[in-house]
Amino acid sequence: xxxxxxxxxxxxxxxxxxxxxxxxxxxxxxxxxxxxxxxxxxxxxxxxxxxxxxxxxxxxxxxxxxxxxxxxxxxxxxxxxxxxxxxxxxxxxxxxxxxxxxxxxxxxxxxxxxx
Amino acid sequence: xxxxxxxxxxxxxxxxxxxxxxxxxxxxxxxxxxxxxxxxxxxxxxxxxxxxxxxxxxxxxxxxxxxxxxxxxxxxxxxxxxxxxxxxxxxxxxxxxxxxxxxxxxxxxxxxxx
Lengths: 115, 114
Prior knowledge:
The complex is a heterodimer of chains A (115) and B (114). With 115 residues, chain A is mostly beta strands. Chain A is 0% helix and 55% strand.
């Protein structure tokens, strides 16, 4: 059973397009995250939702909009894609209350290539 | 965010112990020390975490210095499957606005030789 799944695994698109990446977790966790790993392999958090509420919103362009329809899903929609958006995007989840956010489970990643 | 410093790379032989160091001299009293690893073409994977005391689990051991300004991840018998990038991360456990935020550094690339 896949704990954290992402679709699609690969996404190739042209500049200016709008695309979405979906994430689902079947662990019963109440917190989900989106991370971006760039070509230099640096992994940075973008967003986090706790019980469908946005709790972390790093300095990310407004073109990126996360949506959490329920606790098990956190989707990432990207408008007007740019070359610099090319990266691997990882979804993660954890179970936590305010001071108990320990183990995060990561998905396999979505490799986005913007041409 | 408090910063961690790790060697860029380390090498080990299979079935030998590996000690991966991490310096975090600006650690605060509420910071947890987390270790994650990322195998090639995969998402990061939780390894272990601790606050003050040494910790053991099925994957590894975490040795924390008494002043908490450094820690060491110990893989007792390295296997080829342990070749990965290992990240030492400080996570604010005081709650507030951090909410589980993990700030990844560059990590240590571990190469395991057969």
